[in-house]
Amino acid sequence: MTTLELPMTALKTTNTDNLFTWWYQPWMESTNSAVKLQRIWLETLNDALRHEFEFFSTMATSYSKLTHCMMGLGGPQTPESMASCYHEIAGDMTEATLKRMRKVSELSDDFRERIWCEI
Q1: What total number of domains does the chain contain?
Q2: From what superkingdom does this record's organism come (predicted)?
Q3: Of 23, 28, 74, 111, whose CB is crowded by the most CB atoms within 10 A?
Q4: Does residue 104 lie in a domain region?
Q5: How many CB atoms lie within 10 A of CB 69?
């Protein structure tokens, strides 16, 4: 019988659920620790970005205060009021910068602790 003489049959679809289960279970067993490490890394990245957004929020507030001082929206401008305004803004930015540096330095410790907890 040649291939031309073979009867035409409908193509059978395979059950992909069994194939997926067969592939998924060994894959998860072999990459489980890699997935956990990636999740830890992403959580640490999320924390870093959250701290940066807090710093940006403080910067925006400080620039808003500076704009109010420079435009005289809080009342008439005097050299003393400008100096006090600048000192207040500089203090806010100093606090925000120190807080940012402290949070960044804590990230590596948190990252190591999370890894050790998973291991």
Answers
A1: 1
A2: Bacteria
A3: 111
A4: yes
A5: 19
